[in-house]
Amino acid sequence: MEALIDDRKIKVLFKQAIIEVIEEKKEVVHDLLVEAMEDIVMVRAIQDGENSGQVSRDDIFQILKGKEGSA
Predict the structure, then answer these.
(1) 21 sits in which H/E element
(2) pLDDT in tens, 6-43
(3) DSSP code string of 22-42
(4) Does the pTM exceed 0.85?
(5) How many helices (H) and strands (E) does the chain have?
(6) Rounded Cα gap, residues 62 and 70, in angstroms
(7) How far apart are alpha carbons 23 and 16 in whole angstroms?
(8) Spatial separation of the C-alpha atoms in residues 28 and 20, rounded to whole Å
(9) pLDDT in tens, 40-69
(10) How far, in Å, CA of 3 to CA of 1, rounded?
(11) Do 71 and 63 meet the contact criterion of CB atoms below 8 Å apart?
(12) Distance between CA atoms of 39 and 36, rounded to whole angstroms?
């Protein structure tokens, strides 16, 4: 009797386990993916902000109040 499972069998079992988890816990997987994408977007926004010029505090408040054109 073979004591060790070969790599192919382990790979197939691992894939089946992942598929089963995804099918049974769709909401959890969805939430994890959404959170990961939000994190990526936040990192990119921070990087873009670091490379942009400075803006005055008044300009920020004008934008937040919806008066972008008057700044």
Answers:
(1) helix 7-24
(2) 888 999 999 999 999 999 999 999 999 999 999 999 99
(3) HHHTHHHHHHHHHHHHHHHHH
(4) no
(5) 3, 0
(6) 8
(7) 11
(8) 13
(9) 999 999 999 898 888 899 998 999 998 765
(10) 6
(11) yes
(12) 5
Q: Return the amino acid letter for 41.
A: V
**Other residues' Cβ atoms within 10 Å of the Cβ of residue 29:** 14
Place of tokens 């992942």: 18
> Which residue matches tokens 């937040």?
64
pLDDT surpasses 70 at 70: no
Provide the 8-state DSSP code for 53.
Answer: P
CA dist., res. 5 & res. 15, Å (int): 15
Query: Do the beta carbons of residue 66 and residue 54 sit within 8 Å?
Result: no
Q: Which amino acid is at 15?
A: K
Burial 49-68 (b: 16+ CB within 10 A, else e): eeeeeeeeeeeeeeeeeeee
